[in-house]
What does this fold into?
Amino acid sequence: MTYSGRVTVGGPADVHELKDLMITKIAVGPMKNNAYLLRCRATDEQLLIDAADEAETLLGSIGGDGIASVVTTHRHGDHWQALARVVAATGARTHAGREDAEGIPVPTDVLVDDGDTIRVGRVELTARRLVGHTPGSIALVYDDPHGHPHVFTGDCLFPGGVGNTHQDPEAFASLIHDVETKIFDVLPDETWVYPGHGDDTTLGAERPQLPEWRARGW
It folds into this structure.
């Protein structure tokens, strides 16, 4: 079936099947968070992006093979409600941005800096620090050698705008700068965007709106 990226809480997951990687998108919790389960097709190793909520739902998707790692995109509570239970059940190593780790109540095993590589099996993801929504938010970029890139943006980029900076002009200026220079300026229009809430998009769909976002300040 064709992947749409549209999921609902309590509904089925959607699976994006790439040549080297399977991406399962699940919506969980009252904030309708997206969690992403990545599976290396060569090794079957798995990695979870944001153990946001509904631990039993996430563990059901993870299955008996477990996960090697959990990456928390940022420190806001709606993105780690299930983290403790998922780690207890799987023994997964935890990753988070260095500047946000202290705000996550589950110890972080790996402090992530801008440009660091995180592996799932034979697949490599590159972390990009995007400052503004929080000090240590990270996006994960998968540069698919068989196709276009894929980027998991947490709450830093959505269809129609960057993440919430709470009407703080300095935080907005930082976030729009980082999103432009580290995402839009270096990745092509075909890049698929997987946000922390809601539907997916592409950089090509959002790029024409960048001047509008800057002008409105959010």
